[in-house]
Amino acid sequence: MPEAATLCPYCGVGCGLLVEVRDGRVARVRGDPAHPSSLGDVCAKAVHLPPTLRTNERLLYPQLRSRRDSVLSRVPWELAVRTVAERLGQSVAEHGSDAIAVYASGQLTTEEYYVASKLAKGFLRTNNFDTNSRLCMASAAAGYTRSLGADGPPCSYDDLDAADCVFLIGTNTADCHPVLFKRLRRRKAAAPDAVGVLVADPRWTETADLSDLHLSLRPGSDVALLNGMLHVLSREGLVDRAFIAAHTNGWADVERVIAEYPPARAASISGLGEESIVAAARRFGRARRALTLWSMGVNQSRSGTDKIAAILNLHLATGQIGRAGAGPFSLTGQPNAMGGRETGGLAHLLPGYRSIEDAQARSDVERHWGVEPGTIAPRPGRAALEIFEGLATGEIRAIWILGTNPAASMPDTDLVERALRQADFVVVQDAYHPTETTRFADVLLPAAQWPEKAGVMTNSERRLTYLPRLASPPGEALPDAEIVARVAAAMGWKASFAYESAAEIFDEFAALTAGRPCDYSGLDHARLRAASPQWPVPTPAHPGSSRLYADGIFPTSDGRARFVPVEHAEPAELPDTAFPLTLTTGRVRDHWHTLTRTGQAPALRTRTPEPIVELNGADAQRAGVHDGDFVEIASRRGKLIAQCRVTSAIREGVCFVPFHWGRRFGFYKSANNLTLGARDPLSHQPELKACAARLRRAEHPYPQGGDQSPQAADQ
Ligand code: SF4
Question: Does the reported pTM lie above 0.90?
Answer without folding.
Answer: yes
